[in-house]
Amino acid sequence: MIKQRNFAAIDIGSNAVRLLISTITEQENKEPIFKKTSLVRVPIRLGSDVFMTKNISEENKMRMLDTLNAFKLLMKSHKIEKYKACATSAMREADNGQEVADLIEQKTGVQINIIDGNDEAAMIAATDLNELIQSDKTYLYVDVGGGSTEFTLYSNGDTISSRSFKLGTVRILENIVEPGTWDEVESWVKEATKNYQKIDLIGSGGNINNIFKSSGKSVGKPLSFLYLSSYYQLLNSFTYEERITELNLNSDRADVIIPAAKIYLSAMKWTKARRIYVPKIGLADGIIKSLYQEGV
């Protein structure tokens, strides 16, 4: 007997707002199968407001309202059984973040959970990451967002340490990373990994997914440090417009992809990692997994 259930996750990030719809197929005496049915992404870029002014602008407040209204209708059409909306760095730091969340709930019925960096890291870790992690190896997991980057060290199948830093693509673009942040991240990564000989990176986030897709590599194969480094140089050799026309990047991806690549490359240098694995997972996948596990 097969039973299919539809769940949804809304990820309100500093760069974009996403709706992920997943169909979960349940079979007797078998592990459930999670399949992504639909992904809708709207590049609102809340971080540009918040990291500069500490507030979500009126224009973006209205765009958020329209987007969440549309998501509500899409979830209704997909017959969603259960959903959860989580907001990260930008809404967390906005002075009017809770006020905007309250307005959205009042107008659309969608309740937004504003989560901290540790919750974010824990939710992402709840995804299919364990299928990738080999129990006899050491990995540094790096999730790059618009407002923050989450680092988690895994060794022998266990989580060793985890930390969230205010180092994100939108912050770097707007030139508002606090002085000393890069040094702080570097020293944390080096300290956390100093007792481990061979480390591989695991990267997640829209930018590294995009780079992986352009590499033509098959799923499960890692990117080399050399490939990522040369691709970073290629990105830098083009103007913003050329990245859109020559590399076929979306306009809201063509600028943030450079600081994202820099973060991944820096983490690889600090850990002397030669390879980075790119599973297609993120916060939205973690939300779906945790929602499903709550009801099991």
Q: H/E series, N to C?
A: EEEHHEHHEHHEEEHHEHEHHHEH
> What oligomeric arrangement do these chains adopt?
single chain
Q: Output the structural class.
A: alpha/beta
Strand order of the largest sheet: 8-7-6-9-11-10
The Cα radius of gyration reads 19 Å
Characterize the structure shown:
This protein is of the alpha/beta class and 296 residues long. Helix content is 45%, strand content 25%. It contains 13 helices and 11 strands. The strands form 2 sheets. The chain has a 6-stranded mixed sheet with strand order 8-7-6-9-11-10, with helices on both faces. A hairpin with a 5-residue loop joins β2 (17-27) and β3. α2 (58-77) crosses α4 (97-108), α5 (117-125) crosses α13 and α10 packs antiparallel against α12. The two termini are 17 Å apart.
Brief summary of the model shown:
This protein has 296 residues and is an alpha/beta fold. It is built from 13 helices and eleven strands.
What topology emerges from the helices and strands here?
Blueprint (H helix, E strand, L loop, with lengths): L1 E11 L4 E11 L5 E10 L3 H8 L4 H20 L4 E6 L1 H5 L3 H12 L3 E3 L2 H9 L3 H4 L5 E7 L4 E7 L2 E8 L3 H5 L7 H13 L5 E6 L1 H10 L7 E2 H13 L2 H6 L11 H15 L3 E3 L5 H13 L1
Parallel strand pairs: 1-4, 4-5, 6-9, 9-11
Antiparallel strand pairs: 1-2, 2-3, 6-7, 7-8, 10-11
Helix pairs in contact: 2-4, 5-13, 8-12, 10-12
